Amino acid sequence: MVIPPIKKLIVGITGGIAAYKAAELARLLTRRGVDTQVVMTEAARHFITPVTLQALSGKPVLTDLWDDRSGNGMTHIEIARDADAILIVPASADFLAKLAHGMADDLLTNICLARSCPLLVAPAMNVRMWENPATQRNIAQLRRDGVIVLGPDDGAQACGDIGAGRMTEPETLLEMLEASQQPKLLHGKKVLLTAGPTFEALDAVRGITNLSSGKMGYALARAALEMGAEVTLVSGRVALEPPRGANVIPVTSAREMLDGVMENLKGCDIFIGVAAVADYRARNPNKQKIKKNAKTLTLELVPNPDILARVAALPKPPFCVGFAAESENLREYAEQKRRRKKLPLLAANLIQDALGGDDSELILLDDNGAHPLPRAPKLVLARQLLAHVAHMLKKPSRKKS
Ligand code: C5P
Description:
Structural class: alpha/beta
Shape: elongated
CATH architecture of the largest domain: 3-Layer(aba) Sandwich
CATH superfamily of the largest domain: CoaB-like
Strand order of the largest sheet: 12-11-8-13-16-17-18-19
Strand content: 15-25%
Radius of gyration: 26 Å
Largest sheet: 8 strands, mixed
Number of helices: 14
Helix content: 25-40%
Bound molecules: cytidine-5'-monophosphate
Number of strands: 19
Number of domains: 2
């Protein structure tokens, strides 16, 4: 199932110093082509002007419930009816209290009450205001009512205090907004992944490795989190931010990666081996740096354990997914690999299509044949692959005779 992206969003701004971040959010949304209708409370206008938000969203900002320019005086009903989601950014303590009690004393509270779409709030306030039992009660009530609470983050605050209450940054809010739209197909499932390259030391500074950015594995970890899974990511060395909410286990060599996997297999429902594991390692890596004085140098290499094959060969394995990067004969080599490693599902791609880039294309191979996924950002492919896994888990495929 592919969820269409949000097209129409209401961004509600309430009174708090973090209101300036709403300007950046409006800019990011407009850049992505989201039709953004900004609505500001009276308090918000003490912090930032509607003119700024109008320029960034490309639309007049709505502020007044009693604005007689709108036809039938039902602006709140009309715009709430059209929106795909409402995001309150920042959500002040006062506004959260009003929402929790169903109050409707200005345009934004009216819109929230009249909505039939998801409501997301990004709280921002002083740490003591956030921790106050009244605020916590209101947040708990809002969660029970189905409101999605994004953040707040921990850190230094405008008032000089340190703690929870900082508004989550606009880029992250956008990621969270997108995540909230994904179907929770993996709710309650435990997903374990390997990602990135392994590095096998030859001496104190040199080693054998594979080219791998880790982008596909990290995209899969993020997509699994979005779908409601508990995610553990055993990762080789990569230059990527780990997805928020993943339990990341950093490793270097294939044997460390194997240990990381085996230690986290308990209760695991799905194992996805995306890592580019080095096939061989040095039998006796040198502790010191090897000097450059030999005419020729012979390295003795021994094979590394095949992590995925070992997991798939366990008496009660989780649902195992493999990856195959090939430079030719993609389907044939990948299918051979799937059978050899006894995998229900394998995702195959051509090296030249996938390596290091943000986009790729995949062929999913299972007992029912091949399912091509056309070129798309890796996160989109990751969501499609996991939707396929969720489908297979629900309905185990039967071999074609
Ligand atoms: O390297 P190869 O093409 O055999 O990789 C296929 C799949 O097996 C990948 O999913 C990879 O992560 C996994 N693999 C592994 N341990 C290895 C080699 C590969 O888990 N030593």
